[in-house]
Specification:
The chain has helices spanning about 10-20, 105-110, 145-160, 175-185, 215-220, 235-245, 255-260, 265-270, 275-280; strands spanning about 90-95, 115-120, 135-140, 170-175, 190-195, 225-235, 250-255, 285-295. The chain is an alpha/beta fold. Strands 1, 2, 3 and 4 form a 4-stranded parallel β-sheet that branches. Strand 5 (about 190-195), helix 5 and strand 6 form a beta-alpha-beta unit. The longest helix has 17 residues, at about 145-160. The N and C termini lie far apart (about 85 Å).
Length: about 300
């Protein structure tokens, strides 16, 4: 009679994540069960799902507490039609691009109670309907990091049912360098956070940096005039790169250091992200720069 081999570490991780999700545990997830590489190649085909247009984005799946009371999903209409989706009573206005393990999202949730925030970490696709992807927003491209943030938000909501906290944050897996305008309409966002992005040190890899003149135009498109892009890094060369590229873009102006010092989001961004805490422990330096979206010039 052969004895059964003990489960491998990978099997243990998969069993833990499955149990955490199926049992809807209120216990916060443990990072050791969500192992993932530090970075992902944004140019690879990650088999992501994304809406063909912002009107086809099913945000209700991410923010069930904000579904409009008069919004009932049709069972007869074409699922690719905007009218077949349940509408929210307010739009998503804050995006944390590359949200990591969700530290900033969780910290901002009670500080921005009137805003819906989305984080984009690794894109973990859940096929809700054909060609449509799921919805303050964290946006990540690494699969298990996204899963961790989603489980973390689910647990926090369960722990705070009576107080109704953390209903305004969500996380989805997406490649923001390719599909940002697929999720957000023109002038929809008021804040974008770019916290400790991959520095891509080699010159041939600079095209993969999250800030460039091309990507800045996409940020300008989805941002409302007067909105702010927040950047922070511990790599001075990357900080210089981001400042240079935003300074060169006609749709943005740099926020003064005095304004930065008074901004509650800057204070939170410095201390609440996982990378920020790591830099703090290692007594490293953090470089912050914020940029305001300008009004578009009038047409001639």
């Amino acid at each position: 009679m052969t004895s059964q081999a003990p489960p491998t570490k990978r099997q243990k991780r998969e069993e833990y994540r499955k149990a955490h999700k199926e049992d809807a545990l209120a216990e916060l997830p443990k990072k050791k069960f969500y192992r993932q590489r530090a970075h992902a190649n944004p140019f690879s085909d990650h088999q992501l799902e994304y809406p063909a247009a912002p009107d086809l984005m099913d945000w209700a799946a991410h923010y069930p507490a904000y579904v409009a009371s008069d919004s009932a999903q049709s069972t007869t209409e074409d699922v690719d039609s905007p009218s077949a989706l349940r509408a929210l009573n307010k739009p998503v206005t804050v995006a944390d691009i590359g949200c990591g393990f969700g530290g900033l999202l969780v910290a901002l949730a009670p500080k921005l109670p009137e805003e819906l925030l989305i984080g984009k970490p690794p894109f973990q696709a859940r096929r809700l309907r054909r060609l449509i992807s799921r919805n303050r927003v964290g946006m990540e491209i690494r699969t298990q990091v996204t899963e961790f943030v989603q489980d973390r938000i689910r647990a926090l909501r369960k722990q705070n049912v009576e107080r109704g906290l953390y209903q305004n944050i969500a996380c989805l897996r997406a490649n923001s360098m390719k599909f940002l305008p697929n999720f957000f309409k023109k002038a929809q966002l008021t804040k974008i956070f770019l916290c400790f992005p991959d520095p891509h040190f080699k010159a041939r890899k600079h095209k993969a940096r999250i800030v460039s003149l091309t990507l800045n135009s996409e940020y300008a498109f989805v941002m409302k005039p007067g909105g702010t892009v927040y950047t922070i890094t511990d790599v001075e060369d990357l900080h210089t790169w981001m400042v240079q590229h935003f300074d060169e873009h006609s749709s943005f102006e740099k926020v003064s250091k005095e304004e930065e010092a008074e901004d509650e989001c800057v204070k939170t961004m410095k201390v609440e992200t996982e990378e920020g805490k790591k830099v703090e422990r290692n007594k490293g330096e953090k470089f912050v720069a914020c940029f305001r979206r300008l009004e578009d010039p009038p047409w001639p």
